[in-house]
Write a structure and sequence with these properties.
Number of helices of chain B: 9
Largest interface: A-B, 68 and 59 residues
Low-confidence stretches of chain A: none
Structural class of chain B: mainly alpha
Oligomer: heterodimer
CATH topology of chain B: Arp2/3 complex 21 kDa subunit ARPC3
Low-confidence stretches of chain B: none
Mean pLDDT of chain A: 86
Strand order of the largest sheet of chain A: 1-2
Order of helices and strands of chain B: HHHHHHHHH
Shape of chain A: flat
Helix content of chain A: over 70%
Mean pLDDT of chain B: 86
CATH class of chain B: Mainly Alpha
Number of strands of chain B: 0
Largest sheet of chain B: none
CATH architecture of chain B: Orthogonal Bundle
Number of helices of chain A: 10
Radius of gyration of chain A: 23 Å
Radius of gyration of chain B: 17 Å
Helix content of chain B: over 70%
């Protein structure tokens, strides 16, 4: 089972969610006012829910909630210009519009990228890249890093626990905590250097650095619907940029 | 891309993404999300450091939301400055490492404040934004508050990152440095 393989998003060609996410980001940055940004956010959430990765919209709320709060405080409450009363609070009219626009832009981008993460299958992506005859090195780099992340996280957690059990104090004054950075980061960095050595030899023996075309065993199908979605999204992104620049 | 770089880059990128979490667990108001970039630069040159920083930022975006991608530009600047530091023997002592770290922090902080203000209207990471909000309460303008908070944090952050990498490379055995001649030059060995 690959991530999101049971969902509509997981069954798409691996390039399709990637292109859609990039297009959402471009359109979000080009969105000029609160209404357009809110409409884009609503469409993004709807698409994410319809394609079966609706949990991404909920997960996006975790990093977004504090940012929305600070946008409201910094621009709505502390903003300058004409004031407007909202539920007993005196807020800056221009600041509030700016806060809503920025909040919806960030909402759309975070939701789209977390949906992409939820549906991304490294193995299918490598096969799709190999099928196009593109560089193996780049797809390996992406997939090896995604696979290295949980391994390094687990190792970092084990180091933290081990150093704590040896009596390293991770709390107290900022100076004490800065002193603890060495004992916590050094074992991780040294372990990484040892791994680079071993992996380098392993990759050399498999001719990983060679420029040869690889044949994918089971390349993902690139259906007409996938291609149409990618072209439509790209056209919408280009139109949004043109509208923003010349409109 | 040769096999050694294919092995080094994922490790450097993972370090960038994981050490930030470690520092968070220690309750320190630092990022340390450029340690992998600096390590890759010292071992294999600024081009490799730029790749590690840029790809790391894209992956960070994939996991945490693409809104942070513009900050990838700072990783590029850090790799370039770490490359200059390494070629000048800037990691040969703790003092030199800190000095180069402070210089990098100054440049990175300035760039970070511009990105934070222009693209994010001053609202980025919660810790930094809390400082911005506090400074605004004291009457500072938004651009001044964003610049002050970004600069203060980046100066300490990059000084610590350069110090850690300098200490790591200085304590590495000659066998390891033999495989990465640039690292040997960075610590004047």
């Amino acid at each position: 089972m690959t991530p999101g393989s049971g969902t509509a998003a997981g069954r798409l060609h691996p390039f399709t969610p990637l292109v859609l996410t990039l297009c959402v980001a471009v359109i979000a940055v080009a969105a000029p006012d609160p209404l357009t940004a809110a409409a884009l956010y609503a469409v993004t959430v709807l698409l994410v829910v319809v394609t079966g990765v609706g949990r991404a919209a909920l997960r996006a709320l975790v990093p977004l909630a504090p940012l929305w709060l600070f946008l409201f405080l910094l621009h709505g409450v502390l903003g300058e210009g004409d004031r407007v009363a909202v539920m007993g609070l005196s807020l800056s009219r221009a600041g509030l519009a700016l806060a809503v626009t920025q909040a919806c832009r960030l909402g759309a981008i975070a939701t789209a990228s977390l949906a992409l993460h939820a549906s991304f299958s490294p193995a299918r992506f490598v096969d799709a890249v190999a099928d196009r005859g593109w560089s193996f090195s780049w797809s390996y780099l992406l997939v090896a890093t995604l696979q290295a992340l949980p391994r390094f996280r687990a190792r970092a957690g084990a180091i933290l626990d081990a150093q704590r059990s040896r009596g390293l104090r991770l709390r107290g004054s900022p100076l004490n905590r800065i002193r603890a950075i060495g004992p916590v980061t050094f074992p991780l960095l040294l372990g990484a250097l040892a791994e680079v050595d071993e992996r380098g030899f392993a990759l050399e023996t498999r001719c990983a650095g060679e420029v040869t075309r690889r044949t994918p065993l089971d390349p993902p199908a690139d259906r007409a619907g996938d291609r149409a979605a990618r072209w439509l999204a790209s056209a919408a992104a280009v139109a949004a940029v043109i509208w923003r620049v010349f409109g | 891309m040769n096999a050694r770089l294919l092995a080094l880059l994922p490790a450097a990128i993972a370090i960038n993404l994981v050490i930030g979490g470690l520092v968070n667990a220690m309750g320190l108001p630092l990022y340390l999300d450029s340690i992998g970039t600096i390590l890759a630069t010292v071992l294999a040159g600024p081009a490799v450091g730029i790749l590690a920083g840029a790809i790391g930022q894209v992956l960070f975006g994939l996991i945490n939301g693409y809104q942070w991608i513009p900050f990838g530009l700072i990783q590029v600047v850090i790799a370039v400055l770490a490359g200059v530091a390494a070629s000048q023997g800037g990691f040969r002592s703790a003092g030199r490492s800190v000095a180069w770290g402070l210089l990098t922090g100054l440049v990175a902080g300035a760039l970070s404040s511009i990105i934070s203000y222009v693209l994010f209207k001053g609202v980025t990471a919660t810790g930094t934004t809390a400082v911005v909000t506090l400074l605004r309460q004291f009457g500072l303008s938004l651009p001044a508050a964003v610049t002050a908070s970004s600069m203060a944090l980046d100066l300490v952050d990059k000084a610590v990152a350069f110090l850690v990498i300098g200490a790591l490379v200085r304590s590495s055995p000659n066998r390891m440095l033999g495989r990465f001649p640039r690292a040997a030059r960075a610590v004047a060995r």
